[in-house]
Amino acid sequence: MHLKPEQLNKLCAIAINAATEAGHYISTRANKAVRVELKQSGTTDGDTVSGGSTLASQVVTEVDLMSQQIILKHLTPTLETFDLGLLTEESVDNCSRFAKDYFWCVDPLDGTLPFTEGKPGYAVSIALLTNTGEALVGVVFDPVRKSLYHAIKQQGAFKNYEKIIVHARSDVFSFITDRGFITHPGFRKIKAQVKQYMYAIGYSKFKQIDYGGAAMNAIWVMENSPACYFKLPKASIGGGSIWDFAATTCIFKELGLSVSDFGGNKLKLNSKETTFMNRDGVIYASDAKTSGFIQKLTVKF
């Protein structure tokens, strides 16, 4: 089956409705007591369990699960109508993403950890991908600011339905990172190198943002240009999963911003081996030059 532009538009509208309804629900639960549990990483009876090696990847709440139910209420009818597969964080991977030409990729509450702490940086993230891992539709809803971001391949990227224009600040370079990376043994040296790079390309002020989930971290790269956000390759399970990066990959591609792995290759958004991204790492950058600089960091660490 080949999806036509008008079909992509319809599916994007459905994803927007799903993300918006889920996002508004999440906002009603913000700063309130919620039940928090930890996922387990590994496999069970051949099924991948989604918990990674970091706290951020292991935390799940009743809000994650209800958000997923709201989203699936919108998306489930499209599975038969458009012959789509489905991959969503809080359900077992049924591998329909390999059997179908296209599949939904859903993170019902990306940034669960900041959500439980009452901090900004969480979002709803929904993408439509081909079974080769190309993101055709990307939708992100920020419940804190009630901001909607969406993109459709070859149709542009939008914030609250207005076309996004990326503006570079005159003197500030933003270093956006996961809080877990701060404990990395090479973090101080890496941060120092990022600062050196910043000065070398003509920026005098350094801003660090380290409290968001993957979806909002990528959005903040876009909104705080020049900026970067990356996750180093590592042996342990983690580094985010497909659902953490699929929607923002579509948005970045439509804006001409740089998103890749540490080899400079496109992200593997439908690997048969794992949903995790730890083997190859992830880089979001406001330009190709900055991405190239980040790729070289793996030589030293």
Automatic annotation (TrEMBL):
Listed cofactors: Mg(2+)
Keyword Magnesium found: yes
Keyword Signal annotated: no
Keyword field: Hydrolase, Magnesium, Metal-binding
A biological process from GO: inositol metabolic process
GO molecular function: inositol monophosphate 1-phosphatase activity; metal ion binding
Protein residues bound to Mg(2+): 89, 107, 109-110, 244
InterPro entries in alphabetical order: Inositol_monoP_metal-BS, Inositol_monophosphatase-like
This protein's name: Fructose-1,6-bisphosphatase
Species, as recorded: Saccharicrinis carchari
